[in-house]
Amino acid sequence: MEKVTLSFLGTxxxxxxxxxxxxxxxxNYKDQSLLFDCGEGTQRQFKFLGISATKLTKLFITxxxxxxxxxxxxxxxxxxxxxxxxxxxxxGPKKTKYYLELMSELFKDLKIKFKVKEIxxxxxxxxxxxxxxxxxxxxxxxxAYSFIIKDKLRLDKAKLKKLxxxxxxxxxxxxxxxxxxxxxxxxxxxxxxxxxxxxxxxIILDTLMNPETIDLxxxxxxxxxxxxxxxxDKEKAREYWHLTAKQAAEIAKKAKCKSLILTHISERYENAxxxxxxxxxxxxxxxTIAKDLYSFEI
Length: 298
Prior knowledge:
Blueprint: E1 4-10, E2 24-29, E3 32-36, H1 42-49, E4 58-60, H2 66-69, H3 72-81, E5 87-92, H4 96-106, E6 113-118, E7 122-125, E8 129-135, E9 143-149, E10 152-155, H5 157-162, H6 169-175, E11 180-182, E12 185-187, H7 189-192, E13 193-196, E14 200-204, H8 211-217, E15 222-226, H9 234-239, H10 245-254, E16 260-263, H11 273-281, E17 287-289, E18 295-297
Parallel strand pairs: 3-4, 4-5, 5-6, 14-15, 15-16, 16-17
Antiparallel strand pairs: 1-2, 1-18, 2-3, 7-8, 8-9, 9-14, 10-13, 11-12
Helix pairs in contact: 10-11
């Protein structure tokens, strides 16, 4: 299976710190480069990681709070100056088209082509992967997203050789799950294929706890979840429509995720990260805290 590369361009909350830029998460798969949110300074974070922003194909916006979208004008201007020749696909909650049109009016040099699709509960099919979107419970329209690589039927080459099945269009039929006839003998697809399990990465940012989080994150290989507050500040979390580290871990546990990465970290915990990590690990052991410019393959 093709590798997925995840890169954290920004992992901070509303107030950036010396170590944390505003939120942006980049996911690369085959020829697709997907950016989830675009906080202020995101275009510069691409430089630090040595990744060309011109490879970008899709932008997914969780919601229109400043720390998640103020990097869009700068990124678009940079792309224009780098002669970006694609049509950037932009997906987001209600009013995304309106807000982007306002940006285009304000910043006259956002001279790249883009098309917008506003979504809430949706499944977007892109061939061998799909994006599932669910509305969250925030004080403005907000989405969470799952990136899902579909299961694939793979051919067992040893079995093909043993059955002396020739390299022909019949092979493609078997891989499509269709049975074939060779020399009057029926060969079942299931006898020469096996299922390669896909991958699922879920990104849940600003929201209160709600049932959609668990439904969306179900069986994720990786759950990337906001952890703006510690449980000791749960009243503040509720007041500002955010999750605590404990709640993020509860989502991961109930959704039967394999791993949890905490992000959207408030500056108040920058020198006490062990607090939120400890409370999350009490509930869900396989928890880590995201760092800016942290990149890895799965």
